[in-house]
Amino acid sequence: MPTPFIALDKLDKRYSDHHAVKSIDLDIEAGEFIAIMGPSGCGKSTTLRLIAGLDAPTGGDIRIGGDSMRGVPAFQRNTPMVWQSLALFPFLSVVENVAFPLRMQKVGAARRRARALEWLDRLGLAGMAERNIAQLSGGQRQRVAIARALVTEPSVLLLDEPLSALDAHLRVRMQTELSRLHRELGITFVYVTHAQSEAFALADRIVIMSEGRIQQVGRPQDVYRAPANAFVAEFMGMNNLVRGEVRGGSGGLLEIGSALGTFQVPAETPLPAGARGDFVIAADRITLARGADGPGISGTVLGLEFVGSTQTVFIETEGGAEFRVQKQQHEIEALDLVPGRRVTLSWDPRHAWLLPQAA
Amino acid sequence: MNGTLATRLSRLAQYGLLGALFVFLATPMLVIVVFSFDANRFPTIPWGGFSLEWHRAILADPMIRDAFLNSVLVGLGTAALATALGFAAAYLDFRHRFRFKLPFILLVAVPPAVPATILGMAMLAFLSRIGLFGRLETVMACHVAIATSFAMAIIRLRLNDLSRDLEPAAWNLGASPLSALLHVVIPFCRPALIASFFLSAAVSFDEFLIAWFVGGVHETLPVRILNLLQGQVNPKINAIGTVVLVISVALVLLAQRFTGVRAGRRPKPRSGE
């Protein structure tokens, strides 16, 4: 296996009042687009700051390109970051902002200006060079921040919730832009976000963090379909969690008993009866039928919510649990789903995912 | 229209009061300026005709020239030192957390709040004991102690507006802590630095009591004015007063021009780290 480009080795960060990052290990390959996700306060931004050297770890090590970063100050790392606040220099013009890192590298005035202009052009900001930062729109500022971070042609770009200040329309455009830049440059992007849509649209792999620990690392679809634990399943949103206990099983299917009834769930390795058998079923894998007397779980429609071309149906089961089911508009109409309607839920056992036991 | 009349009267009264206030404040200064151009030996009415005699006289008086030069030297020195120290104190407060931070800031801020007589006597006692009494540098040092407080206040106000991310962003982009200070923090503070330079110069230029206590034979302009007054009523005083007034007002106006306190802008709340 090749040595990873960025390796976090038992990385730990303790502040006086809380333990932000708890001994995490992570390997990031060269050229990878990796997204670190999690709710606020999960340690994702701290991890990024540790990589950039803006905070000193209280334990463990970071290696970039095989070299330990222990004792290497931020300004010698060449790990430029795009800040959530953008952190553009308000007293410098657009081109001076972009040329700033080159100025710090003592590149001559003419050369650094030429390179800054090149990058502005590349990000569609030609003609804005002499403007003040205050004269730019949000999207333009964002591009200036990206150009400024890339002007030294680093081998890694760190992004800390860079799109959170933009409106939805611009956010999608900037996602496309970032994707294009990543493809063209072939460098490593480490992207911190709390927005699932951004991480799914952009990243090769995503890292889910919670309370300073990594919960799961994997390709977006794998994390979505096969969450490692209840936290990830719930964080991903469109999953229904059923808590249960293994009753028995055969032929790769476990029999799981729960408050809602008994279910068949596929499992690679058999588990002894009595073991915990929590599983999830994705919202788009559930079949709905009218009436409460078919096979499956019966419940009552609580309400509906639009999510683009599909709708999420909220259903309360007899046992009092809440299920989310995702359906196309025409299916909703065919079933005449309105609040109060009695329905039956069922799914193909192969689509249920048994949560691996927490260590 | 009852309301309109009442409003008009009220407005008239307000303008009247404001006008009276300005007249009250400005008249003594105006009198000095007017009589400095009066040909009469004593400032009396009627006006004796326009004359530059007294202005010429102060130029010819070597003691006044020396005092003026001393004031300029002390003023410029104070301005430079107080601005540098005020920036250092404000930056320390902005960038670092340390024990006794509040006492430290209070220590820098407090000198102008101490009555000048007490400050002057205390400095005189202290400086004569360590053998630094009666030098121009001593006057400057004392003025620096007072002016630094104003300089720090102005610069702190500006630093409050500096995004907490800006300096780390500079480090992240390859700037050493020193380069970040020179290329990011100082350019950001430039208006405040210029303002505090002029304000410190004005504070020093106007200050009399401490300069009188610790200056010894080195007179600054305000000290020279008092010494002239003690001798006899001298028409040169009006001329000096006019010069001092013009310089002080100019310095304060320049400082105002650069403080950059714009209406309607609230400083950003400090984000917790």
From TrEMBL, chain A:
InterPro entries: AAA+_ATPase, ABC_SmlMolc_Importer, ABC_transporter-like_ATP-bd, ABC_transporter-like_CS, Mo/tungstate-bd_C_term_dom, P-loop_NTPase, Transp-assoc_OB_typ2. SMART domains: AAA. Keywords: ATP-binding, Nucleotide-binding, Transport. Pfam families: ABC_tran, TOBE_2. Residues 6-236 form the ABC transporter domain. GO terms for molecular function: ATP binding. Belongs to the ABC transporter superfamily. PANTHER family: SPERMIDINE/PUTRESCINE IMPORT ATP-BINDING PROTEIN POTA (PTHR42781), SPERMIDINE_PUTRESCINE IMPORT ATP-BINDING PROTEIN POTA (PTHR42781:SF4). This is Spermidine/putrescine transport system ATP-binding protein. It comes from Ancylobacter amanitiformis.
TrEMBL record, chain B:
Residues 68-255 form the ABC transmembrane type-1 domain. It is a multi-pass membrane protein. Its main location: membrane. Keywords: Cell membrane, Membrane, Transmembrane, Transmembrane helix, Transport. CDD domains: TM_PBP2 (cd06261). It is found in: Cell membrane. The keyword Transcription regulation does not apply. The chain crosses the membrane at residues 12-37, 67-92, 104-127, 139-157, 169-186, 193-217, 237-255. SUPFAM superfamilies: MetI-like. InterPro entries: Bact_Polyamine_Transport, MetI-like, MetI-like_sf. The keyword Glycoprotein does not apply. PANTHER family: PUTRESCINE TRANSPORT SYSTEM PERMEASE PROTEIN POTI (PTHR43848:SF2). Belongs to the binding-protein-dependent transport system permease family. CysTW subfamily. This is Spermidine/putrescine transport system permease protein. It comes from Ancylobacter amanitiformis.
